[in-house]
Amino acid sequence: RVILWVSAYVPVVLAINWAIGGNYLFLAAKPAFPTAMDWMPAWPWYIGVLIGLALAVAFLLYLPFLIADRRAARPTGGD
Q: Cα separation of 31 and 59, whole Å?
């Protein structure tokens, strides 16, 4: 759900960036100072890498809850 909300939020930020010449969410360019984004491809390709990283982090954060839910739903078989 978080990824979907951010995906809905991005067009709004793009419009604001275009209107005021900003770079919110670094959608227009990489930051001028050194960051991990320096290891990513040039604009606009790094946006896809950031989306992939966001999906991976969201999945890793959700993984313990997924495992717990699957264990809880497993039949006990001891009756």
A: 26
| CA pair distance 49, 56, nearest whole angstrom | 11
User: What are phi and psi for residue 76, nearest 5 degrees?
Assistant: -80, -40
Q: Under a CB-based contact definition with an 8 Å cutoff, are residues 37 and 31 in contact?
A: yes
pLDDT at 79 over 90: no
Tokens representing residue 35 in the block: 């960051």
Summarize pLDDT for 10-69 with one digit per residue, the tens. Answer: 999 999 999 999 999 999 999 999 999 999 999 999 999 998 999 999 999 999 999 999
| Rounded distance between C-alpha atoms, residue 32 and residue 2, angstroms | 28
Residue at 11: amino acid letter: P
Phi, psi values for residue 70, rounded to 5°: -65, -40
Q: Tell me phi and psi for residue 44, to 5 degrees.
A: -90, 5
